[in-house]
Design brief:
Length: 627
């Protein structure tokens, strides 16, 4: 044991018993900061683990964790959380700990040192070649775990070894080794600290990644829910509202039509098909909601297809749509399909980092565009080639000079002979309004309104940045909530739940701690992430939060009204909403009500989750013009 890093003395904590509490906290957190990079160094192994686990589970196998002490407890914890989180049968993910269930709450001395116990426990659950076994041993040498992985390999199960020491014994005895090396613990040998945190992170990635691959989510929504009680019925209604933009009554009506089946309801609404057709699509796509919505549920079962389920296509029939912003870039490849919703079918999707030139620089922005395009072709299982037409909607590309730089890059990489570069807000109208005419309202970290008339005339309102504007944005909502919290703490206004809820979200204990959070390194995005707290408190009926949300929604309605007036729209006009804050259905309804207070109606009102679809539609329009 003397050679193990996890057992070594940490030179940073040799005077642990003499330092102040504040020094201790800073030391602990400083050491913990090394955990995430250590786990990130295992990204490729983790990705392979996710794929293997998903494949085995899809084929009827199980995911089994086995470990001793802290390692075993973490495995049992992850296994026990899978049924309530992903609605999987309790026996699909199994956690075994040396010493049995009694070892979860007290140490069972000697249990981990007996190699026979590991084999006995695996035989007790009839481990087979269909299963995946994850042997968890921080040291990489625990006899209970080593014997278990040896037995698992002997019966044909796929074995993964998780340890935190380089050159660990378990590495050579498993099919896949995941080894985040976190170094010596602050308290020598106490592997419940950094090693335990690394273990929890790894298990989070493996189980969550596999469940996502199995279709347990749509975006970041948990959609494999059976509404067996009132709480779950409320939850399924909320998920339908979040995913589709329907109001509460319409969502409930849809669920009733679909037999309270959440996935069926989502596919039926978003693909515009009947409940029976939605079930058929889900069956053909192995329960993957997005695939059922976007690919007509064919899943490669008919005709001559690539392994991703798409018929062979020539690049000259393909269009490319790109949405690029300050946080990420999405590229979509599509082909015409008269039988699909919108008249086109998605072939491949690629993602990359930010492509706002003014935020990350020209080289990084163009590299992100290139990476996202390449990944979209790879996802479509097509060689990269010039497409029929391409539309790129990019943040920071509103001026002719910015657009020309992107067009020059597109010419160099032979993207297409027909390339359109527009500002990103233009995609929202193309994706969310009839004929791309109306007003788009964005409420993310910032906010703005963008309008377009049928003759091509455009206008904008808002978008002046955090000091001069951005009213109604996530940043402004969060800042108003924090200001209300500190005023309440002073007694300047009545007490509000905002104080407690915001502190809890930030893991703080006193309002005074907000000063350090806000003024020492907190950026706009971190503040904007608190907006859902303000919205939730408003929905719970708090008058202070309700006033903040109503004021914010009113500002967005004012921006939309200004854009509509500038374009000469009447009292009713199409509106497309986008941005993370509008992801909350309650905020969309507040905006609709604020418009009504001004005598205006959004008809239709849509929520755009994938602006890149607007780029696809514009690309198809351009391909028609150049044909």
């Amino acid at each position: 044991m003397d050679h193990l890093q996890t057992e070594a003395r940490n030179p940073a904590s040799t005077e642990l018993d003499e330092i102040s509490s504040l020094q201790f906290v800073r030391l602990m957190l400083g050491e913990d900061a090394a955990v995430v990079p250590a786990v990130a160094s295992q990204a490729e192994a983790l990705a392979r683990g996710v794929e293997v686990i998903a494949d085995r589970l899809r084929a009827g196998g199980r995911l089994v964790y086995i470990g001793a002490g802290t390692s075993g407890r973490l495995g049992v914890l992850d296994a026990s959380e899978c049924p309530p989180t992903f609605n999987v049968p309790p026996g699909l993910v199994v956690g075994l700990i040396a010493g049995g269930s009694g070892a979860l709450t007290r140490a069972i001395e000697g249990a981990e040192d007996n190699p026979e116990f590991g084999v006995t426990d695996l035989k007790g659950i009839a481990l087979s070649a269909a299963d995946v076994l994850v042997g968890i041993a921080t040291s990489g040498r625990t006899p209970y775990v080593l014997s278990a992985v040896d037995y698992a390999r002997s019966v044909g199960a796929f074995t993964i070894g998780l340890s935190c020491n380089p050159g660990a014994e378990i590495i050579s005895r498993v099919d896949l080794a995941i080894t985040p090396v976190v170094g010596p613990e602050v308290l020598s040998g106490s592997t419940r600290l950094k090693a335990g945190t690394a273990t929890k992170l790894v298990l989070n990635v493996l189980s969550t990644g596999a469940m996502v691959k199995l279709g347990k989510t749509y975006g970041n929504l948990m959609v494999d829910v059976r509404a067996t009680n009132e709480k779950l019925r409320v939850r399924t209604n909320r998920i339908v509202r979040e995913a589709t933009g329907l109001d509460h009554t319409a969502a409930d009506r849809l669920l009733e039509t679909c037999g309270r089946e959440l996935k069926t309801a989502l596919v039926a609404q978003l693909a515009g098909v009947s409940a029976d057709d939605a079930r058929d699509r889900l069956q053909r796509t192995n329960g993957l909601v997005r695939a059922a919505i976007t690919t007509n549920g064919t899943n490669g079962k008919n005709g001559h297809h690539h392994k991703n389920g798409h018929a062979k296509v020539a690049p000259e029939n393909v269009v490319l749509g790109i949405d690029g912003g300050g946080t990420g870039t999405v590229a979509l490849l599509a082909v015409p399909d008269a039988g699909s919703e919108g008249g086109w079918k998605l072939l491949g999707r690629g993602e990359a980092g930010p492509s706002n030139r003014h935020a990350v620089g020209t080289d990084a922005a163009l590299a992100a565009l290139n990476e996202a395009t390449t990944k979209a072709f790879a996802a479509a299982h097509l060689p990269r080639a010039a497409v029929r037409a391409a539309c790129l909607g990019l943040a920071g590309a509103g001026r002719p000079g910015d657009q020309e730089i992107v067009r020059e890059w597109a010419a160099r990489v032979r993207l297409s002979a027909a390339v359109e570069v527009v500002e990103d807000a233009a995609l929202l109208l193309a994706a969310g309004t009839p004929d791309g005419v109306g007003v788009a309202v964005v409420a993310g970290t910032g906010s703005m309104a963008y309008g377009r008339r049928a003759d091509g005339t455009t206008t904008r309102a808002g978008g002046w940045g955090p000091l001069l504007g951005d009213e109604g944005s996530g940043y402004s909502l969060a800042l108003a909530g924090l200001r209300a919290a500190v005023r309440a703490a002073d007694g300047r206004i009545a007490p509000t739940p905002l104080t407690e809820r915001l502190l809890a979200a930030l893991k703080l204990t006193r309002p005074q701690e907000l000063v350090e959070f806000v003024y020492r390194g907190c950026d706009r995005a971190a503040l904007a992430a608190l907006a859902p707290v303000v919205l939730d408190v408003a929905e719970d009926g708090d008058p202070t939060a309700d006033h903040i949300v109503r004021e914010a929604a009113g500002e967005l309605a004012a921006a939309a009204a200004a854009a509509a007036k500038a374009l000469g729209f009447g009292a009713s006009f199409p509106v497309a909403l986008a941005g993370g804050v509008f992801g909350a259905g309650c905020y969309r309804e507040r905006f609709r009500a604020a418009l009504a207070d001004r005598g205006l109606t959004a008809d239709p009102l849509s929520f755009v989750r994938e602006p890149a679809e607007g780029a696809v539609r514009r690309a198809f329009g351009r391909s028609v013009r150049v044909s």
